[in-house]
Amino acid sequence: MKKGHQVTMKEIAKKLGVSVSTVSRALKDSPELHPETKKRIVEMAKSMNYQYNLLAQSLRISKSKVLGVIVPELTSHFFSSNISGIQDTAYKRGYNIMICQSNESFEQEKANVRTLVSSQVDGLLISLSRETKNYEHLMELYNREIPFIMFDRVTEDIPVSKVTVDDAHGAYLAVKHLLEQGCKKVAYFSGPEDLYISKKRKEGYLKALSEFGIPASESKVYMTDLTSEKNREVTLAMLASEDRPDGIFAMIDPLAIDIMMVLKEQGLKIPEEIALAGFTNNPTSAVIEPSLTTVSQPGYEMGQIAANHLLDQLDDLVPDEPQSFVLLTTLVPRNSSKKKPNA
Amino acid sequence: MKKGHQVTMKEIAKKLGVSVSTVSRALKDSPELHPETKKRIVEMAKSMNYQYNLLAQSLRISKSKVLGVIVPELTSHFFSSNISGIQDTAYKRGYNIMICQSNESFEQEKANVRTLVSSQVDGLLISLSRETKNYEHLMELYNREIPFIMFDRVTEDIPVSKVTVDDAHGAYLAVKHLLEQGCKKVAYFSGPEDLYISKKRKEGYLKALSEFGIPASESKVYMTDLTSEKNREVTLAMLASEDRPDGIFAMIDPLAIDIMMVLKEQGLKIPEEIALAGFTNNPTSAVIEPSLTTVSQPGYEMGQIAANHLLDQLDDLVPDEPQSFVLLTTLVPRNSSKKKPNA
């Protein structure tokens, strides 16, 4: 064991083959446990030189009744829906929430974690910034036994509960739909390659192509940094290409809408000449013309599930072992892709 | 003076006819002041039984370097723009921000104030919920000398600095534009009557009518609670009316978009048969078809100005006397109203 390493309840639990909540109860001298079990755990904790984390203890004992939430950006309808779900759930259970946004910046995200921890929140719900590749700030939370869970933008590197949507399946549904409508050459407009959702949605795109007998070698992936300028540039480049696609699956709705603007401006008929589908189901997508086929992500429900699970952990209603919740996405077919009646 | 009333620096300042920041400097024993002035202020403070507010003092001395922000809702593009302006400004000056949303609930707003104050923020930026008619929670902040300012949804009842937009002028610009395009009967679709912006925008609407020789008695005001259902119902009722308007000014863009959906569904040509204008300049308004004429509110700049002013107050760079900043709005003419070429 490294010098200076602080032994956690999780390590004691692992050593004894019991759950973390059992260790926690033993160290709190809970009457629910068998005295023998309690004794065994307390002795192991002593032998491992466990220092009961005073901060975590004081947080647990004198609860602030506040949860901290960190999201990449608040202008995104998806994240503001997450927050509504978190807030409504927290409020029903007597908690308030404080929100910080990272603005997709790793440094700001670290500052947010520090700020919320200093404010003595009882627990945190975190969605990572685009820049975050290093997870030491989260590992520190974990080691200090400050309860937190991750949602939407998560990392497998930290053993806490996670709530995500089934990105690959949602993309698969959208691309399958385009192919069913008669599209022969479907392109995937992707955000930066290292984004989790870029990869996951590409998986779904390739799976749908493969089901329709189109090999990955014939896939058409267009990359953009998701700025409106670049989205426009890439769309124009695609239109100028020799083997022009007749269907487009865009990674997110705002990208799909930028693409739609260019297609309309260039006089292309949607969906007759090019069909289009997005992913998110932003409010704009329903009112734009033609209305945008998209994949609905349950943002509000994601917030509800994340908040309820964290509060269940705080109230010792569920084991501390990390859970993974994967929510289903659904296809919302609209006029931008419907070539066949009643299809 | 009421029993239990806590004397404030503001009261001492008033009594002596000096500024609050002078009182504050005297009580901090600042070398900038003339010893005589200092003596006079300290004696007055003693005679009034002033208790130097320990919390405010500790906040000022050991700064948390965090500002608290309370907004009615985060799904609104306007408020999320405010927050971006606040956050970017705060970040540049070494501060982080924590955000709470009231969800338009008075109770939640009070809980948010308590939460942020308990978290020892250095100051607050507050935009009121739709329900807030009682300002005791703000008066308490004021009496405790916790620095805060208000933005967008403000009240005249609390003597702190405020940042707002010129609502009446923006509405005037939109309605004048509709009249200039040849509309003869312009309706105003308004939110709940007691909302500050409902009133202010109505002022601008009536002013424009009056300039075009249309008396207030011939104005056409349609009220809605701003839910999509009610917006739809009111629009259908307007279309069924005998003296159908040929132009509509909607109080906010989301309402204008709901109206547009109904007009399109009913086969009305926009702007030929009915011209339409909104207020906010949401991103959807630019991409909808026809694109929506609207009034642009500088949400980001409002956040910047509010944050800079609060931080200036915290750093004693400006006097503590309340300031009022009124930002200008601008007309954004688009296809939903342009009847005349180059008009």
Q: Could you walk me through the main structural features you see in this protein, from its secondary elements to its overall organization?
A:
- Two copies of one chain form a homodimer.
- Chain A has 343 residues and is α/β, with parallel strands linked by helices.
- Chain A folds into three domains: 9-52, lambda repressor-like DNA-binding domains (434 Repressor (Amino-terminal Domain)), CATH 1.10.260; 64-160, Response regulator (Rossmann fold, 3-Layer(aba) Sandwich); 167-297, Rossmann fold.
- Chain A contains 13 helices and twelve strands.
- Chain A has helices at residues 9-16, 20-27, 35-47, 54-61, 77-92, 106-118, 136-143, 167-180, 196-211, 228-240, 253-265, 283-287, 299-314; strands at residues 66-71, 96-101, 123-126, 148-151, 162-165, 186-190, 220-223, 247-250, 275-277, 294-296, 324-327, 330-332.
- A six-stranded parallel beta sheet of chain A has the order 2-1-3-4-5-11, sandwiched between helices. Chain A has a four-stranded parallel beta sheet with strand order 7-6-8-9. Chain A has a two-stranded antiparallel sheet with strand order 10-12.
- In chain A, α5 packs parallel to α13.
- The longest helix of chain A has 16 residues, at 77-92.
- The radius of gyration of chain A is 24 Å and the shape is elongated.
- Chains A, B: Keywords: DNA-binding, Transcription, Transcription regulation.
- Chains A, B: InterPro entries: HTH_LacI, Lambda_DNA-bd_dom_sf, Peripla_BP/Lac1_sug-bd_dom, Peripla_BP_I.
- Chains A, B: Residues 7-61 form the HTH lacI-type domain.
- Chains A, B: Pfam families: LacI, Peripla_BP_1.
- Chains A, B: This is Glucose-resistance amylase regulator.
